[in-house]
Write a structure and sequence with these properties.
The protein is 9% helix and 49% strand. With 96 residues, it is mainly β.
């Protein structure tokens, strides 16, 4: 993913570099980032979700999904509450 465009996004008390992937149909965060945001006291609405696995477009990789949550994102003066899937198997911390 080193050739993908990135953007700085403020979440909770810190900034995260997020990969911008306009072809990605879902947004996801690592379980480590989710736990870190919880420990900072960031309020996130957890949505009901049944355990599932996502398979990549090429079918060579799959990710176990643990939760679905609303996370507030900030870029400059803009705030967006966005739904993210939480996985422990992502290569990047954030895929908005």
């Amino acid at each position: 993913m080193k050739n993908c465009p990135y953007t700085d996004i403020k979440i909770g008390n810190g900034n995260v570099k997020g990969v911008i992937d306009t072809g990605f149909e879902i947004s996801s965060v690592t379980e480590d980032l989710y736990v870190n945001l919880q420990s900072q006291g960031l309020e996130m609405l957890e949505l009901k979700f049944q355990s599932t696995v996502l398979v990549t477009a090429f079918g060579s990789m799959s990710w176990g999904i643990k939760k679905q949550v609303y996370i507030p994102l900030y870029n400059d003066d803009n705030c967006l509450e966005h739904v993210f899937l939480v996985s422990g198997q992502l290569l990047e911390s954030l895929l908005p």
